[in-house]
Specification:
about 400 residues; about 25% helix; alpha/beta; 9 helices; FAD/NAD(P)-binding domain
Length: about 400
């Protein structure tokens, strides 16, 4: 039985971020002892993915950043481009394998963090904290006893919600033999894609050089597509919308992010907590998660060092969650045209302010001003009916 002050279950963005903060890289200061439990290679490990977020020019994980940009571009459904500078912010992209390598490098010399490769079977509360029962890849049982446990594993099913859409996407990392991309700006949302019956779709382009980029097709809708449908959508977007042919697909990524107004439990036992997407870090209206994970894990690390009860704080304010619930309802009911809605916001609100709004960092008067730039009557109707809607499990979850 391994013993530690803290057990972290899962080594995705949330688990690695918390371990990194507790290891105090580069210092000899005493921190809590940590066991980080990661699943062995196989189906329980998440596939490689890309995380995007915005923050001031310098950040904690800049050594793992693939590329960053200061100009964003949005294309309306009619094709008109909206471009702006987001100073003092930068939009950053991190590939999960680079993030994992950076954190592993910083954890290696730490005397406080041990890593355990095992499958977690159960997490149970005890009189002195909690116990994590695991199995190694060879099937050998091993346990971890800890004062505090932070579980970042994906939930087996979504909590009941009034509205749940799926943000699902498929992307190509592409290379061209010609300089066809402009690395100075990101196409954040390009609504010149065929729109689904419910929800919205868009393409985006993250150029990492003049001849390399990540090109992605994304939908907010109730159901995922087949691989063939995603590939067809990407071919249409790259060839017919962007006018790019002869691209070499170097690698791909696919993912599904629930966009839901369901409440997420951040505590499941006296000493057991959820962090990351499992603890509500995903912003319901956008699917962005990485920045909220950093806020959440920073607060937990501060509480642990201060000797306080380390309950993860809500990743998003109550005001943000209410506004997101209204938007999700308006999108799902078809009262607002999602592509027109987002394009209008970007055309009427300065981009740096809109990004702060999407990150929940605007003041009440700024939120009110942004709200006036949305379709007010459909949004008010959606808000009025929310209290009367039942919460139901998401089909298939």
């Amino acid at each position: 039985m391994l013993e530690a002050d803290v057990a972290i279950v899962g080594a995705g963005a949330a688990g690695l971020s918390l371990a990194h903060r507790l290891a105090r890289p580069g210092t000899a200061a005493r921190g809590p002892s940590v066991v980080l439990v990661d699943a062995p290679p196989g189906p329980l490990r998440p596939p490689s993915r890309t995380w995007c977020f915005w923050e001031p020019v310098r950040g904690r994980y800049d050594a793992a950043v693939t590329a960053s940009w200061q100009r964003l571009r949005v294309h309306s459904p009619s094709g008109g481009p909206i471009e702006g500078d987001i100073s003092p912010l930068r939009y950053k992209m991190i590939r999960s394998e680079d993030f994992e390598a950076l954190v592993a490098h910083d954890l290696a010399p730490s005397r406080h963090v041990r890593r355990l490769e095992a499958v977690v079977d159960t997490v149970e509360s005890t009189s002195r904290g909690a116990q994590v029962a695991c199995r190694t890849a060879e099937g050998r049982p091993v346990g971890v006893s800890a004062r505090w446990v932070f579980d970042s594993r994906p939930l087996g099913s979504l909590p009941a919600a009034r509205t749940t859409l799926l943000q699902h996407f498929h992307g190509w990392f592409v290379r061209s033999d010609r300089p066809v991309f402009a690395p100075g700006a990101v196409d954040l949302m390009d609504f010149r894609t065929p729109q689904p019956e419910r929800g919205l779709s868009f393409g985006y382009v993250l150029p990492t050089g003049r001849s390399q980029a990540l090109v992605e097709y994304t939908e907010f809708s109730p159901r995922v597509l087949s691989r063939q449908e995603y590939e067809a959508a990407l071919r249409h977007y790259t060839e017919d919308v962007l006018g790019l042919r002869g691209l070499e697909v170097v690698s791909t990524e696919t993912g599904v992010i629930p966009m839901t107004d369901a409440p997420f439990a951040r505590q499941t036992g006296p000493s057991v907590f959820r962090i990351g997407a499992a603890g509500g870090a995903t912003r319901p209206s956008t699917g962005y998660t990485f920045a909220a994970v950093q806020r959440q894990t920073r607060a937990v690390a501060h509480a642990l060092r201060a000797g306080r009860r380390p309950v993860p704080p809500p990743a998003h304010s109550l005001r943000s969650r209410v506004m997101d619930a209204v938007l999700l309802r308006a999108l799902d009911s078809g009262r607002v045209d999602g592509a027109v809605f987002f394009a209008r916001l970007f055309s009427r609100v300065p981009m740096d302010r809109l990004l702060r709004f999407l990150d929940g960092r605007t003041h009440l008067h700024e939120d009110f001003a942004i709200g006036l730039r949305t379709p007010v009557l459909p949004m008010l109707r959606s808000a009025a009916e929310l209290p009367h809607l039942p919460r139901r499990p998401f089909p298939g979850s």
